[in-house]
Every structure is written in structure tokens, then in C-alpha cells.
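Collaborator request, handled under Task 6.
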Amino acid sequence: MENQSLAMFGILTMAAFGGVILVVAIYRRQQKQGMNILQNLAMVLDGRMERKCLLAMHEGVPYQVQFVKPGRGPVLVVISIPGDTGLFFACRKRNILDTIGQKLGLVPRIEIPDADFARDHYIFSRDPHKAAQFLMNMHTTHGIRKILETRQEMLRMDANGISLVFPLESMSEKHLKMLSPPFIREKVSRLAGIAGPERGLQAKISSVANIVPASGLFFDRKQSMIPVLLITIFVLATLIFMILTQEKYLPTNGVALVAGSFHFAILPTIAGTVLLFVLARLYFRKAPEGHRLFLLSICMVPVVLFLLFTSFFMWTNGALDAGSPAVHTARVLEKTIHRSKSITYRLRLTSWDNDEIPISIRVPKTVFDLFEQGDRAVLSTKPGRWGYEWIASPPEPAN
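C-alpha cells returned to the collaborator:
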């Protein structure tokens, strides 16, 4: 048994290690492929490579082209005009989550003359008043409409410059053909038309702008890790409570305990969800894309909390039980062995409360081998903190 467990652990470890190596190899291959593409483009665009970034000029406007790989997501193309725009501004076409977020007060409203633009686009700025002034010009909103042709494209302005970000479906030749010199020059012209030097953008080709990678373009990665970490803690706590209940406080009537735990968990789940809803709303409302993180998190919270409180109820039924143990005698009805990834040994015993409802308990192999069908067993139980009887000691042969 121990050898099988060690072998399985070794196989899983090698598989995980092999998976990591494969992911790293694919990432390195894509990175090398992306560099080759940028180097080829640099020759056609009369540009140069610097720090894995293509630098070039178009009609007197300096620009940069980079590839960014955000973890498991697709490769992103970032076309930027470097320089300080004096404004933190993010924009993309609106989706259903943006509409829900705005109704919940998580997306700040920016009043601009072009009401259709405000209705069709998600707009975030740390200075809504400044953003409203920037979008006051109908020429600006028209230019943003032209550059954001699909729902996958994103526009960002900050202290690093103005950037257009869009994903590549793959690094295949078919999808890379779209990155032609005319396509890049067209996007640069449109970016310059939105926030070029004549609109206050002081472009500087002398230094490479710090392009914020991947998901960081629209939300803070550290901020997104907090709900992930919280939900992970809840899930781990649930698993620990369930394992402890199964190993140390096994109920004689599991169905009744589960039903009782469901009734118990309803009110704490509602209260916990409301509390986390209020706290999360305050936490996410000031961050770009915070409403999407909020909505995704709050959808998972009720389920995770319900499971957590359910498992907590089951565990405390035994862990907090201060009752006196009772000794019972039962007859072994059946011995069963379940083989899957591991071997489980079970004894099916007559009930001391109702002979028509037998009790099935999991036991170690050493205890399992002590009994044959028809033997009498002695075991002790405790009443349970919440009234659900559980087995306090494994069965022993009756004298």
C-alpha cells in the first residue's frame, strides 16, 4: 500500500514537473518567435530593437511595438506612443458586466456630450473630471471609435504614453499576417490623432516606455489576488473540516448530519455574503475593471461560504462535543472492500437504535481483519454537539 502511494506520488510529481517544463518551453518559443517578427518588422519600418521592443517613427511620431504574454491568456500586441499624457484613462467597448457594474455604482459615470459613446464604451479614469474634459471634443470620441474596432481592443493613456492593446488568436503565420507595416502605421496615426503632441502628449523616443503587461493594463494584479486568496482559504478550510469529520468524527447517520448542516449554513451564508458584498464594493469601486473582479468574486462567494459553514457544522458536531460516550453492541452484517485510487475497508453493522437501518463505517485494515460476517462488535459513540451521534472509538470484537 505504501509503495503504491509513493509510486503514485512520484508519477504525479514527475507529471507536474514535466508540465512546468512544457509551459516554459512553449513560452520561450513564443518569445523567440515574437522577437523574430519584431526584428523583421524593424527592417521594413526603418526602426530598431531595444529591450525586446520595436522602436520606429511614422510621420515624425515615435512609436513602439511589443508582445506581452499574460500568463495563460493569449499573446497581446501593444502599440504605443511613449510620453506622459497627464491622464490615467482606459477605454474599451462595453459588455454586460460593465452595465451591471454601473447599476451597482461600481463604474463611475463620466458626463460627456457624446451620450452614445458613453453608453457604448467602458471608461475608467482616476480623475473623472479630467477625463470628461478630454472626451468633451467630439473629434476625440470619434477617433477612439475608429481605433477600437472590436471588443478585444483596449485603449490606455497614462504616464507612459498612449497604447492600443489587442490579443492575437495565436502566433501562427495566419494570425501574424495582420501585423503588416501598413496596419501598424495606420494604428499609430489614429493614436496620434487621439492624443498626439498637438493634444498635449510629449512623446520621447529616447527611452522605452514602461508598458504595463497583460492584465495589469486594466486591473491591478495584486488587487485581483486578494479575492482569489480569500476564496482559496475558504476552500482549503472546507476540505480540512470535511477530512477531519470523516477521519475523527464519523456520524452514524450521515444523511441526517448533512441535512442539519444545510439548515445551519443558510443564515451565516446570507450574512457573510452581505458583509463581503459591502466590503468588496468599497474595495473594488476605485480600481479599473474592479467591477468585473467584484461581480466574478461575489458570484462565487455564496457557494464557497455555504460549503464552508456546512463543513464547519459537521466538524464542530464532534470537535465541540462534551457529552459522555455510550457503549453499544452491534452485529456485523457485511464486510466490503472498495478499490479505486486507494483501498477502503468498510463494516456494515446493525443499528442499536433501529435494526432496519444498518450503519456503514470505514475502518483500518487491522480492525477490518478482526471481524467476520455475523460477529458481534462493541463500539462507543458520543451524542454530538448538535445532536448528531458520531463514532468515538472503532469497533472491537465482543468478548
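The cover message to the collaborator said: "The chain is about 45% helix and 20% strand. The two ends are 31 Å apart (CA to CA). Please let us know whether this matches your experimental observations."
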